[in-house]
Structures are given as C-alpha cells and as structure tokens.
TrEMBL record:
GO terms for molecular function: oxidoreductase activity, acting on paired donors, with incorporation or reduction of molecular oxygen, reduced ascorbate as one donor, and incorporation of one atom of oxygen. The lineage of its organism: unclassified sequences, metagenomes, ecological metagenomes. It comes from marine metagenome. InterPro entries: Cu2_ascorb_mOase-like_C, PHM/PNGase_F_dom_sf. Keywords: Disulfide bond. This is Uncharacterized protein.
Length: 289
C-alpha cells in the first residue's frame, strides 16, 4: 500500500508525536493569479525556555499542491553578541527551519539543539502558487523537546549559506550552463551538522568546500544531480561532521542548466535572474551550525 502522507515523519524516530505543534492561520490560494507569500506571526506558546532536538515543518495535505516552500523564522530576545545569523529577515527574525518539496525535517545529534525561549514567536513565510482551483492551506511546525531542565552542550543555529551572494550575482543567460560562487567566512569555530542544497528547476549541481586558514581546501559535499522535486537534507554521522576552525571560508559552487537539454526547463530562451518563483532561480545551502 502507498504510505499515508498525513503523518509526522520524525515520529518513528522519536517514538512519539511532536511535543508541541504550532500552526499558521489558514490561507486560501485562489485558482488563478500571481504567487502569494503568507507571512503571519504566531505565538509559540512557551512559558519557559525549551531545547529542541528535532523539528518537522508540514503543510496540510491540500496545501502541498500549492506550497513552493515554508520558511519559519524565530523571533525572540537574544543576548548581545550571542547570535549573528547568516540570514536575518528584519522584522521577521532569524532562520529556524524550512519545508521544501521532499524534505522531512531537521534532527539534531545528541547533546545539541535549538533554543526556543519563553515568549518566542514564529513568523511563517509560506510561498503559494495557483493550480487552477481554490485551495485552503495551513502549515504546522512540529517540535520534539529535550526533557525539561536539560541543557545540551552545544546550541545549533540555522544558516542559509550563500543566500546573500545569490541575490547579488544570479545571472543565467538563455541557452547556457552557468557556474556561480559564494564565499562565507566563519567567525567562530563550528561543526556543520548537515548539508541541504537549494536551487530551482534549472539547478544542476552544487558543491560545498572548506578553505582552511592555512590555505588547504577540502571538498565537504557535492550533489551532482540536483532535483528540485527532492530537497534532500544530508545529515552527517557523528564521525563525519566537519569541525572547522575560526577563519575557515565556506565555498559554495552552484551549476544551473538553462538549455534545451534540461527536461525540467520550461523555456531555455528566457534570461533568468534571482527570484522566489519556481520559474526564477537561486542558490544557497541550508546548514545547521
């Protein structure tokens, strides 16, 4: 039998449903029209700080027909100097996690986690497109917590490496295969927990390298056959997660195929720039640090 889609994929891993579910208010995407971005702010409902060991973002069944992505941003008071995110969309907050087609969720290894403080709020960034009929849509954020009072040794921060450079440099001429680069310096020692490349339908491949302070270069990951329909989150094992010194530079290389040979390409005659619609393109890597 085909598996039931109305389930929490991480429930099997943790042996229980989410400890807390936060939902976006409902939105109706009209049958025709431009793409829409629904960005409500919702109270998380916590009266005390809690550490998250896993998070899964799940559009409702009907919503999956119209959902391009659902980004969730965390709004909470941080200590000065405690958190400098790679992506901070004022006034929406800092990046928590996201749903894209094919992604299950984020799992944080033992003794690490994300901190959600008492009084925090989520800002949803739900990107919807029309499919020829009205569709009612909501998005749920399911969280699994460490036991009350437990404080993991390491706090994990969500990053979108390369997003700012992508917005500034994305340029794909008609009928061409292009290569773009982004360089992200690490201002503190860091362990990378996962690698999730993100591009759109012209995305072809993406690599992530570490350029060490002594000049050495190490290939960390390379996805050679990117598929927009499967946003795979590659989670490192305990003995393979890169531990990088301060001053390391993350080097992303992204390839896009805007030729007739790309079967997913709707029109190779178009000149493509950065944009959030599936017909536009971008490149960055979702990495928990």
């Amino acid at each position: 039998n085909w598996p039931d889609d109305d389930v929490w994929r991480l429930e099997e891993r943790y042996g229980r449903p989410p400890d807390l579910i936060v939902s976006s208010p409902p939105w109706t995407q009209s049958a025709e029209g431009q793409d829409q971005w629904w960005q409500p702010v919702v109270d998380v409902g916590l009266t005390e700080d809690r550490w998250v060991t896993g998070v899964e973002i799940r559009p409702s069944l009907e919503a999956r027909r119209v959902t391009h992505h659902s980004n969730v941003y965390l709004q909470q008071e941080e200590e000065p100097g405690d958190h400098t995110p790679a992506i901070d969309v004022t006034p929406r907050g800092s990046y928590l996690s996201e749903f894209a087609i094919g992604k299950i969720g984020d799992v944080f290894r033992e003794n690490t986690g994300k901190l959600i403080k008492a009084g925090a709020q989520f800002t949803f960034d739900n990107h919807y497109h029309s499919v020829g009929e009205d569709v009612a849509a909501t998005t749920d954020v399911g969280m699994w917590f460490y036991p009350k009072g437990f404080v993991p040794k390491y706090r994990v921060y969500g990053q979108a490496f390369g997003a700012q450079q992508s917005q500034a440099t994305m340029d794909i001429p008609p009928g061409k295969v292009t290569v773009h680069h982004a360089y992200i310096p690490l201002d503190a020692p860091a362990r990378l927990e996962n690698y999730q490349p993100h591009m759109h339908i012209r995305g072809k491949a993406m690599s992530m390298e570490a350029i060490y302070p002594d000049g050495r270069v190490e290939m960390l990951n390379h996805v050679a056959d990117f598929d927009f329909n499967w946003h795979v989150n590659y989670v490192y094992t305990d003995d393979s997660a890169p531990v990088l010194p301060r001053g390391t530079v993350i080097h992303l290389t992204a390839w896009h195929d805007n030729t007739a040979a790309n079967r997913a390409n709707p029109d190779y005659r178009q000149w493509i720039g950065w944009g959030q619609r599936s017909f536009d393109d971008m490149y960055h890597a979702h990495v928990n640090v």
